[in-house]
Write a structure and sequence with these properties.
heterodimer, A: 334 residues, alpha+beta, Nucleotidyltransferase, domain 5, Actin, Chain A, domain 4, 3 domains, five-stranded mixed sheet, 11 helices, 27% strand, B: 76 residues, mainly alpha, 0% strand, rod-shaped, disordered C terminus
Chain lengths: 334, 76
């Protein structure tokens, strides 16, 4: 008998929670394929290390962009491999709960559930990421108080106000930490004339990227390919430049938080001033982001203790109490 | 006599159907309470325990077969 599963199918990472066991898998949402035969060569960490470093016949891709499936067939194969790795076979078909961005379209919803069913799930249901994040971040969403959660993922940023087990206000933008990486790539290419890969851009972000000035900032050396000569070249980037490069993306995220605050009913609004907002998701780890949101909204911002795992832990709680919480699935609203 | 028995059986059947239909009808109030109870702090304790386990294991890889030198990407 298969144990039921909760899956956080993120643009950047995929996490799997097994009923009664906890998190059993956590790896990048990347798959490496042989371009000629279409065979899967690697998934997860192994495939992630191949990004931008593959010979012509291998392609390492992220099948999800902006929280949506960009390649249905590859996503289905990736989900099938994930399920196989956690012990799902043709004869053991578990119930699966999958976390998805709240703003996905009906077509995208069907694509995700179909992919999971074809990959071996007996039943596949979807739950909104902010709701799962709020459960996983241990917010008292069963009480009639305003709980606000900001989930910044690889491809989407979602802000939700939750009270009495339901979403009261929601604001989502298809902008996330990959857009920050892309903005850094674009800036370095434009201003310094060198091309860098997405992994290098991510390293720059992690090393010196910030949304607001922070103490102890340092410069960083960046190596790439000179666009004029084609030769390897090193340039020095400072944190001000990176802040300038990513400003549009950061502003879009902060603006969506402000729009969500404006949508919240006044009775719940006052709760935020005392309870604060909770930041989850890998994008929330950007230095100075919590401070920047706090500065612009005048509402305290707290970081979740488990920003990367909150969503799958919340979905895991739903799979543990499947019958009681099935009313929370997308499309099952009363 | 036979007619009376048939009528009695029919009445019992109708009553049984009515009772079963009432039972199977979803009760919104109890469903809502079940959902709220399942979201309570007490019910979520196992998830919170997982959070604490994660805090304790922050430096350890989640999977035992994960390579030691594997870099972890940022993002969610």
């Amino acid at each position: 008998m298969a144990r039921d599963l909760a899956i956080d199918l993120g643009t950047a990472n995929t996490l799997v929670y097994m009923k009664g066991r906890g998190i059993v898998l956590n790896e990048p949402s990347v798959i490496a394929l042989n371009r000629q035969t279409g065979e899967v060569l690697a998934t997860g960490h192994e495939a992630w290390q191949m990004i931008g470093r593959t010979p012509g016949y291998i392609v390492a891709v992220r099948p999800l962009r902006g929280g949506a499936i960009t390649d249905f067939e590859i996503t289905e194969r990736m989900i099938r491999l994930l399920l196989q790795r956690v012990g799902v076979s043709r004869f053991t078909r578990p119930k699966v709960v999958i976390c998805v961005p709240s703003a996905i379209t009906e077509v995208e919803r069907r694509a995700v559930t179909d992919a999971a069913r074809r990959a071996g799930a007996a039943d596949a249901n979807l739950i909104e990421q902010p709701m799962a994040a709020a459960i996983g971040a241990d917010l008292p969403i069963d009480e009639p108080v305003g709980n606000m959660v900001i989930d910044i993922g690889g491809g989407t940023s979602e802000t939700a106000v939750i009270s009495l087990g339901g979403i009261v206000a929601l604001e989502a933008v298809r902008v996330g930490s990959f857009d920050i990486d892309a903005a850094i790539q674009g800036y370095v290419r434009r201003e310094h004339g060198i091309a860098v890969g997405e992994r290098t851009a991510e390293e720059i972000k992690m090393a010196i990227g910030s949304a607001d000035p922070t103490p102890g900032e340092q410069q960083a050396e960046v190596r790439g390919r000179d666009l004029m000569t084609g030769l390897p070249k090193t340039v020095v980037l400072n944190p001000d430049e990176v802040r300038y490069a990513i400003e549009d993306v950061v502003s879009a995220i902060v603006a969506s938080v402000i729009r969500c605050l404006a949508k919240a009913p006044p009775e719940l609004s006052q709760d935020f001033l005392t309870r604060g907002m909770y930041l989850v998701g890998g994008g929330g780890l950007l230095r100075g982001l919590a401070h920047r949101i706090e500065r612009e909204t005048h509402v305290p911002v707290k970081m979740s203790k488990v920003p990367l795992e909150a969503v799958v832990l919340g979905a895991g709680h739903v799979i543990e109490h499947y019958d009681a919480l099935k009313g929370m699935f997308m499309g099952a609203r009363r | 006599m036979n007619v009376a028995i048939l009528v009695a059986i029919a009445v019992v059947l109708i009553l049984a159907i009515v009772v079963l239909a009432r039972r199977s009808r979803p009760d919104a109030v109890s469903d809502f309470h079940r959902q709220i109870n399942a979201l309570s702090a007490e019910s979520r304790r196992p998830v919170v325990d997982q959070v604490h386990k994660f805090e304790e294991q922050t430096d350890q890889p989640v999977e035992p077969d994960q390579p030691e030198d594997a870099e972890r990407p940022d993002g969610s």
